[in-house]
Design goal:
Elements: H1 2-12, H2 18-52, H3 54-70, H4 72-112, H5 118-147, E1 152-157, E2 164-169, H6 175-189, E3 196-200
Helix pairs in contact: 4-5, 5-6
Length: 202
């Protein structure tokens, strides 16, 4: 009797059709996708909350404070030194530009004057063109020198455009760096090596 009952129970179990199996599979897939989307949403919201809350700023402030304590003296000194160097070069560029602007203004006044002779106007025009060329050469020298790894550079060409002073911000002014700078300057200005003066700012 027990064997017959078992056989009956086996026969009574419903057999799933292909469509029902596919429905079950699709239902499981939908549930898995829903869980994934939910987890993704939680992650995005958590990240947004972290970025926009005071918590992240507090943590970063604490960690940065610890880093500063480890090397506080070096950190402050390095920042101050870099700021001083930057201010020096910025100030020097402004002073150089002011002097050039004043010269150009005076020369332009001669060109625009109705009382000046044609010879004076011609000479003033030539000087304006010369100053413009000088500015371009200085900019090229500065760009090329900084491309060699120099932190900052200021080139000042004299009035006759045959000599140049180059002030550089570099940790070590080696013979190789000096040679590179002189090659750049002579190539751009057309002067000799002796006419290039290199000054280390620090």
């Amino acid at each position: 009797m027990s064997k017959n009952k078992k056989n009956k129970e086996k026969k009574e179990k419903p057999v799933l059709t292909d469509s029902e199996l596919q429905k079950r599979k699709s239902r499981k897939t939908k549930i898995a996708i829903s869980c994934f989307v939910l987890l993704l949403g939680v992650g995005v919201m958590g990240n947004w909350y972290w970025e926009n809350s005071d918590l992240s700023s507090k943590v970063s402030t604490i960690s940065s404070a610890k880093e500063k304590i480890l090397g506080e003296a070096t950190y402050v000194d390095a920042t101050t030194e870099a700021a001083t160097e930057s201010e020096y070069f910025s100030s020097a560029r402004v002073d150089r530009q002011k002097a050039r602007d004043e010269s150009l203004e005076k020369l332009q006044a001669v060109v625009d004057s109705s009382t000046e002779s044609e010879e004076a106007k011609k000479e003033a025009t030539e000087k304006i063109a010369k100053i413009s060329d000088t500015i371009n050469i200085e900019n090229k020298i500065e760009t090329l020198v900084t491309a060699k790894g120099v932190n900052n550079c200021l080139a000042v060409i004299n009035e006759n455009a045959n000599k140049v002073d180059i002030i550089v911000d570099v940790e070590e002014l080696t013979d190789t760096v000096i040679l590179q700078i002189k090659e750049i300057a002579t190539g751009q200005l057309g002067c000799s090596y002796e006419d290039v003066t290199i000054i280390q700012s620090n």
